[in-house]
């Protein structure tokens, strides 16, 4: 990555560790100004900074635990957006980058609320893509796989533990994987955070490896992200093919309207 001719200001939340720190360092490396924030501006995040990857089944999680992870991964970013959007809209420029998750589109057993919070955040940002386009504000969703950060080591278990019947399901396999990651992160965590930081900055700046890449709404990072994305697309395609005929049979006879599909033209 080479220094830029016209640096920008990056506001990065959750920049004290993990992928947020990696992106901040990459932005600084090429000459951007970085305003770094830690994920502790709200009570839930102050008390539970590790809640980004809370595990547990829906049955085992207490409602306060569910609220806390939504505060951290969903409502916290909304508060930041509400603070910066007026200035960005007035200026008519800027890029909003969401660090999503592979598990926002391909669910991981034992991480139900984490999956849910990331999927909700991604849908919010997909909506912003359309709502902010006229103001020349770009929205980008980063879809990372598993990178070698402390995201797994910091992940707490539900206060109530795991119900015994679930341990013989996919949840048991997921917990076994977590154990393997903790014992041998070099083997099970393929992603290099510093490379992710470089790719994100390049994608936003349209430099380096992204110099000739047309602007896109999403950026997949990590071989595991690519593999799971393919599997999800395959599953969705099969669902579409299997249900299309039945879907088209439910309209009123003779009706030719397109329903809510017209929003694709907005």
TrEMBL record:
<protein>
    <submittedName>
        <fullName>Uncharacterized protein</fullName>
    </submittedName>
</protein>
């Amino acid at each position: 990555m080479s220094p830029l001719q016209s640096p920008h200001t990056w506001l990065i939340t959750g920049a004290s560790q993990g992928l947020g720190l990696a992106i901040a360092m990459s932005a600084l490396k090429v000459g951007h100004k970085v305003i770094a924030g830690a994920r502790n501006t709200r009570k839930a995040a102050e008390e539970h900074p590790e809640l980004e990857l809370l595990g547990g089944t829906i049955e085992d999680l207490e409602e306060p635990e569910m609220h806390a992870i939504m505060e951290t991964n969903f409502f916290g970013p909304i508060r930041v957006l509400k603070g910066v959007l007026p200035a960005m809209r007035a200026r008519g420029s800027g890029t909003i980058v969401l660090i999503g998750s592979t598990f926002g589109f391909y669910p991981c057993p034992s991480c139900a609320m984490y999956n849910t919070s990331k999927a909700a955040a991604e849908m919010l940002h997909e909506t912003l893509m359309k709502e902010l386009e006229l103001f020349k504000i770009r929205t980008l969703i980063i879809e990372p796989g598993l990178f070698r950060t402390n995201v797994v080591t910091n992940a707490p278990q539900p206060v109530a533990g795991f119900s015994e019947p679930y341990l013989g399901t996919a949840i048991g396999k997921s917990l076994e994987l977590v154990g393997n990651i903790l014992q041998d992160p070099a083997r099970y965590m393929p992603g290099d955070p510093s490379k992710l930081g470089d790719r994100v900055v390049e994608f936003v700046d349209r430099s380096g490896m992204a110099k000739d890449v047309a602007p896109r709404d999403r950026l997949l990072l990590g071989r595991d992200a690519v593999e799971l994305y393919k599997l999800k697309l395959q599953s969705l395609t099969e669902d579409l093919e299997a249900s299309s005929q039945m879907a088209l049979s439910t309209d009123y006879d003779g009706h030719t309207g397109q329903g809510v599909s017209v929003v694709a033209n907005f």
